[in-house]
Each structure stands twice: as structure tokens, then as C-alpha cells.
Amino acid sequence: MIFKQFNFDGCLAYVIACERERKGVIIDPSHEMDPFLDFISSRGLTITHIIDTHTHVDHVSLAPELADRLTATTVMNRNTPAQRELGAKVTDLFGIEKVLAENALKRVDLYLGDGDELKIGDITLQAMETKGHTRDHMAILAGDRIFTGDVLIIGQCGRTDLPGGSSRDMYESLFGRIMPLSDDLIVYPAHDYRGNINSSLGYEKVNNVCLKTPRTMEEFETFLKGLFPPLDAKTGKLQCGLSTMEPAPEGELGPLMKSFCISMEAFLATPHEETVIEPEELLQKITKKQMLFLVDVREPKELEQTGFIEGAVNIPVREIAMRIGEFPKDLDTPVVVYCASGHRSSHAAVYLRAYGYRNTRNLEYGMHGWQDRHYPLSKMA
Q1: What pTM does this model have?
Q2: Which is nearest to 87 in space by CA: 99, 76, 78?
Q3: Does the chain have fewer CB atoms within 10 Å around its N or its C terminus?
């Protein structure tokens, strides 16, 4: 997959493309056209679709203009006409009404419903309706990534006090739709106000101020009322989430979260062979009793079913942030993590690098590869 993230003063946009066919899409374009055109040209890409995850209230979409230049199809959610009708009723809301009016004129060539798919070469994009920030909001699932728009922003969620917004819908979207998804998904939002460029869903479930505490719908509504600052009537500035200027909410990780995001990007950009350890090499290290901190990031029930590699400590991937004190104090200690296939543990490796364990590697093929070679396993007592 060819992937590029763009950051325009806190507004994030993306290009995803199939490497084999050189075809791709743009998600949530805004502000400047040239960076998109330059990247597309440099990689020899053909853009087939341009997707807005929702009707934006803080900036004007560039989707139709880019579509005209690139002969592409503009895409939004099936509820966009209803959202635009709501926006048309707004007459005086600190300048937001002007943005809504301009976006309402943008053409939409294709509407997607919940579960609808777009196939771009080898890539399948699936729409997931996630109301709450707006009525027409949808997230986009693409392989091991989820583009969450403004419904899930790193460390928080989008605000719900704008036209078409609803705290109850946000609750259903976050806890009913997004929370059940795989921890392994890499989260890419449409906004960044704190230097956070991505995360993983597993990390957000544990650390996101809106997700980590179990709440009833009524408690969640009350919580959101105190979370976001009021719209700035003086400057007309609108932020769809919290910025670095506000005090960090309880549980906000600040610099650590930024370190995690930078680590995620570095991990994804590092050649694969430098981030993994082959089963043969790990067995050799264990046999020679070389210094190593081995972590099984699966759930305890998985260890009961299949056994585990001798010497491994069981810390499920979603608990790593909370149990970091159980790791060696020496950050130079070689660390190896593994799961069933190597997917979950790849994210665990990112977490640990963010904490400073730079000598962390992921077991290639995970337990499946270890078992295929008939290497020794220990059983739960």
C-alpha cells in the first residue's frame, strides 16, 4: 500500500493507493491543492475517488476541485443531504454558517451507506456510519487502518455541539461500533491539535479520555458537556477537538503520546527485517540463555489453549501502557514480543519503543511460526 498523511494546521488528510495498479483515493482533502497534486504526480498515481468522511464545519472541502483536476469521483455518506439541510438552518454561529453554506454547494457523485465498499486495486475501503460529530459522519476501514474522521481523535473524541451533532449518537458510535473492532487497527483521525499523528485502537481503548472509563449514556453526555471549550465568538475559530492550549484532561499522556505517535511512524517506515526476529534466532538466544525480556502479548486464555514460549511474561497488548513498570529498568535491554500471528505484537513493539525500549523486536510469524517448526512450548500450571 502507498500511504501519505498531510497536515494542514491541524487538519489531516490522506492518500491511499494500491502499489500494483497505482490507483488510489484521497480522504478529507482541505486547504491546499498543490501538495496532493505534487505527491500524486511524484508517485505516478491515478486517483479514482475523493472521500469526505463528513460535512466539515471548520474548513471548506477541496474534494470537487481535486476531482475536476484528477477526473475522480467525489464520495460522501448517504446522510449528507440531511446534514446539509440542518446546516442551511444555521444563520449566526460565529462564522460556521458560512463554511456550511460553501460546503453545501460542493457536488457529491457517490453516496455510501453503512458497510458499502470501494475496491481500489488490491485495497478494499469499507464505510462505517459513525454519527455523533455530524449526522453524515462515517469512518473508513482499509485493511489494518481506520480513518476515523472527527468521531475519534487521538486521546479524545470529536465535539458534539455542532449542527447535526449528538452526544447520544457519539456514544453509540464509539462504544457500539468502534470499541468492538480489533485492537490492532491503526487509527488515523481528521484532526490533530496536540502533535498526535496516529495511534492504535487498542491504545485508545486503554488511554483515550473518552473511552477508557466505562460510562452510561447519560454519564457520557454529562462528561462531554465539560470536555470541550465553547466556540470562540471573538475570533470565530473552531476546533473539532481539544488543542494544546487547554489543560490536558485527566489521564492525558502529553509528551508520551507524542512519542508513541512518532514511534508508530518510525516503525512503519523501518525496513521489515529490522523490526522482527526470526523464530530460529529467538530459539538460539533462549538456548544460549542470552539476556532477553520475552513478552507474550496474547490474552491469558490463549496461553492456556496453546502454551507459551519458555521464559515469556504474559502482558496482554492492551495492558502494556498500564503495566510498563513490570518491564526492565534498563531501556537498552533486548525485548522480544509475540502474539499468535505477529500482528498484535507489532503494535506492542511500537508502544515499547515509545516508552524508550528501542531494542524491541517482534517475533516473525508469531506463535504460528513457532509451532510450525515444532519448537518447545511450556504449559500453564
Answers
A1: 0.66
A2: 99
A3: C
